[in-house]
Amino acid sequence: MSILSPEQKAIQQAAKDFVAKNIIPNAAEFDKSGEFPMLLLEASKASNIFAMAVPKEYGGLNYDALTQALVLEEWGYGCAGMGTTLAASVLSMDSVLIAGTDEQKRRYFKPMLNAEIGSFGLTEPGAGSDAAAGKTTAVKKGDEYILNGTKCWITNGGFASVYVIFALTDPAAGVKGISAFILERGLPGFTIGTTDHKLGIRASNTVELLLKDVHIPVTNLLGKEGEGMKIAMKTLDMARPAIAALSVGLAQRALDACVKHVQATFTGKTYPGQTLQFKLADMQILVDAARGSLHEAMRLRDAGLPYSKESAICKTFCSDVAMQVTTMAVSLMGSWGYTSELGKYMRDSKIMQIYEGTNQIQRLVISRAVLAPPPAAAAPQKAGN
Amino acid sequence: MNFELTEEQQLIGQSARDFAKEYLEPIAVELDHTGEFPKKVVAALAKHDFLGLLLPGTVGGAEAGFVSYVEVIENLSRYSAAVASIVNNHTIAAYAIQNWGTADQKKEYLPGMAKGDTLGGFAIFEHGPTPGVGPDALVATKHDVGYVLNGKKAFVRNAGEAGVYIVFATMDPAAGAKALTAFIVKADAVGVKVGEKLETMGLKGCPVADITFENVVLAETALLGAVNQGVAISAQALAVASVAEAAQTVGIGQAAVEHAAAYAKQRVQFGKPVAVLQAIQTLLAEVATDCHLARLGLQNAALLIEEGKPFEVEAAMIKSFLVRLGSKMLLDTCQVEGGFGYSETMPLPRLFRDIAGTNLLDAPGDFPEKLIAASIA
Fold it and tell me: Which residues in chain B are closer than 8 Å to A265, comparing Cβ atoms?
């Protein structure tokens, strides 16, 4: 168990209470219907939790990274779909935190103070892992940009008030021609396409965004023209641990369900053989190690130290752990596992290995860091140049 | 040593593939959506002699060997594992009657089962960890004209659709599993109540439910095998069933890896198809390898069954292998397809949900490794 401050413990407990009251009782219903749980946003107003990453000067809760991870673990424990709604809203804010002006921050963060959500639109049908292959364009005309294109698999897209959207301002410049923009809901030409029906995280809203001659003022450009990819990558660095946190919650939930089932099944007797006991031990080892890797990355970030590699590591490890633990849970618990809520945890876990950078992309990032020359060797070379 | 299927085995496999393409491929998605029992498909299976595969010709069976049978199950599973599961549960019930039934029992039940007029179900599991033990156990009491059943069986496949169930009950709750005894119970016997269909993540269309038995009076002739022979019968029948279940897993895995390989060839990222990336090749290669090894292992066990040789250890090995690696086939193929592999408009999510139901342990605490470890000389 991680050593937390009294304040972090209190916030963690409040998140547990919120999840027990508002998320766990509703999770199965929204998983089944695939509807977006508006009631969640309503219930969040009192705690202002969608503003947990908003700095104090903008009226937010200003939680540090570790504390945000604690909250997201609890949401992942309750329902990874609903947790994804919170994580994706924070993700979109991260772009504005990284590159926004004071005015842009004020504007973007304001809805979050009222339990409204944001959405991050990078992916396109032909641009998944290869995020730079996007075709959406933004053409500058006078004091406006005009956006055209299609974004897909956009989390929160159907219900967000504010969006960060990536588009090419200079198609010839490739990666360096991508820019980031703030969009508001309801702009003429900005519409919601089809809603994706997914294997899991079905309470989270995943849609196509259609942009047809959408006019926005030049003041909606985040950072400078051509900085879009840099902003997107920094945003994902910041946001990836959120997926790790949801994953730890998922894995813990599956383990708890197994333990409860085993305890109920083998009442008053010694537990069955070492094989099951050791499998449960393995699950606990994985959950603890996953949580440890997440907290380590968050402590680095909170200390202002580089954490890009650790961010990729914890995203990869925690999501792999969630997949492994939930899969073990279904298999080990036999027919009960297959007909119980464990199936949802297994379905929900799969996306953790895919979205916000597939675990293959994370491994590229990590292997580059591993293979990079050590700083001591790199330093003289730099000086020489 | 010969790793080639005989011509006959290949032909039966091919006919199952042709059948699956014609009858299962068009309905698989719909079946997964509605979860309604596919009556028409089951009638077509019967018409094409897929419901009496293991039974002798004398009762109208196809008299195919077990190797052919697992070929059929794998090929059906490529298109609908739910339908394969219906066939397998039915077949194992018929197998039990064929193996342990009296001449009269065979005559009474098998012709209808071979023809597909009567579907079979196999009621072994209970909510407690060991059938015949604990407060939930189904109890059979000796009665002047036969037996009376009281209690509940859990997770019965083909429940509500089967006309006959092989039901395991303990004759002595104090003795628990040692007194486990098998009975043939007709679905329309007074006091047999099928509970609500349980929700499952996959294999939708192959119903699963609990069955309650309330003072169900059985004639002496309902006894299958001998009193207290239940553990032996269920162990062997479940082992046989698990080999066919492994063929379900392999069929699903094979369908998934072929889909993912085709996807990888046409999905362009970073200027080239992702199929050229080593990371993608590794994922696909490992799944194909696991599928291949699992198929060899299950065919080996199937051949032992067919030849009447001891097969239990080999069956346990393939189960152990697939409990570890079965679901991974879909975890990795979905990964190859990324966001597309997570969208229910694509095929892999259904296969993901199906495969998770084909490599389950019989109960928490029940491990195939026990038998394997004991067999190592």
Answer: 127-129, 364-365
